[in-house]
Design brief:
mainly alpha, MetI-like fold, two-stranded antiparallel sheet, about 65% helix, globular, UgpAE/MalFG_permease, Putative maltose ABC transporter permease protein, membrane, transmembrane, transport
């Protein structure tokens, strides 16, 4: 009897709870006046719970990448902002100004200038791509480009080969290694113009040390800077002198990062010095060498001090590269052609950007990420 009574009470309570839920559901869906919560009608204000237009956490749009980066690294961005601003003013504005002038016919006679108390406004016109068309049709551009590419390839190849050889030698332990490293890095520490002037004294045809040494051996004096061929050899030699320390330091760091266990294992397997160099050293230096070759190419392509201070593009124009000719148009020739010099500068920038893109694509095909 007690069990039956408990079952009856439980059934009655369950039925009563079911009827309550039915009444609650019916009240919720009962049509009523518009605007009351829980009843259909006019949509309420966005964001209020239980009304249409509600912004729930699920429907919120995630913050963008830039906003997320600014929110997480705002302190770093605040520290970098002054540097970015200064670089933008130093590099960005001159670059934009140069691109604009390359699309005009600006020269010394029609730019804005002040003569005494008189202010003369600019009168140059926008000419579009006429400057670039004239340059590409000019054989002078192609002659300068061929010599610039030759000069760059020769300097980078010889600098890399000499720097790699010296790095391999200095990576070994021997007496006086620190002294040799310091002496080989010395040309990099000396300002470039000082080194160039020193080499100019060495190349002097009458009183230079090089010709004095040759004269002591019964050899006639060599016109180092007065003969077109010898002048090209001379400027390449000076640029190699300036570039080897950079290659040496970079490649020596790369060699020291290669584990010595690889060489020991290869030697135990019977690999000779050339095989170890080919299969261990060169692959281990690939990431470092790819970077230094690219940087050396850009620097050599735009190397102004060596050419200008040593030969000024001479004799004649045999050693003149693209950057020295652009300088001649803007600061030497009369009237000074600002638009033409700017167009030459833009073309130099485009050539280097094209080379960097092709070089990076070639590295990616070889599996290098740069």
């Amino acid at each position: 009897m007690a069990v039956e009574t408990g079952q009856s009470a439980g059934s009655a309570a369950g039925a009563e709870g079911a009827r309550g839920r039915v009444r609650e559901t019916a009240a919720t869906h009962r049509p009523g006046k518009p605007g009351k919560p829980g009843k259909p009608g006019k949509p309420g204000k966005p964001g209020e719970p239980g009304r249409p237009g509600e912004k729930s956490g699920v429907n919120k749009r995630p913050p963008g990448r830039i906003r997320n980066a600014l929110g997480r690294h705002w302190y770093a961005w605040a520290m970098v902002a002054p540097v970015v601003l200064v670089i933008g003013l130093i590099i960005g504005y001159p670059l934009a100004r140069g691109i604009y002038l390359s699309l005009t016919d600006a020269n010394e006679a029609n730019v804005e200038r002040n003569i005494g108390m008189n202010h003369i406004p600019a009168t140059y016109d926008f000419v579009g791509l006429d400057n670039f068309t004239a340059i590409l049709k000019d054989p002078i551009f192609w002659d300068r480009l061929v010599w610039t590419v030759t000069w760059t390839a020769a300097c980078v190849a010889l600098t890399f080969a000499i720097g790699l050889g010296l790095a391999v030698i200095l990576n070994r332990r021997f007496a006086g290694r620190t002294l040799y490293r310091s002496l080989l890095i010395l040309p990099w520490a000396v300002p470039a113009f000082v080194s160039v002037f020193a080499w100019r004294l060495l190349y002097n045809e009458r009183n230079g040390i090089l010709n004095k040494i040759l004269d002591g051996g019964g050899i006639d004096a060599v016109p180092w800077l007065n003969d077109p061929t010898m002048a090209k050899v001379s400027v390449i030699a000076v640029n190699i002198w300036l570039g080897v320390p950079f290659m040496l330091v970079a490649l020596l760091g790369g060699l020291q990062s290669i584990p010595g266990e690889l060489y020991e294992a290869a030697e135990m397997d019977g690999a000779g010095p050339w095989q170890r160099f080919r299969h261990i050293t060169l692959p281990g230096l690939r990431s470092v060498s790819s970077t230094v070759v690219l940087l050396s190419t850009i620097w050599t392509f735009n190397m102004f001090p060596v050419i200008f201070l040593l030969t000024r593009g001479g004799p004649g124009d045999s050693t003149e590269v693209l950057v020295t000719y652009a300088y001649r148009l803007s600061f030497v020739n009369s009237p000074r052609d600002f638009a033409g010099a700017s167009a030459w500068g833009v073309l130099i920038l485009l050539i280097l950007m094209l080379f960097a893109a092709v070089y990076r694509r070639a590295l990616r095909k070889q599996g290098e990420v740069w």
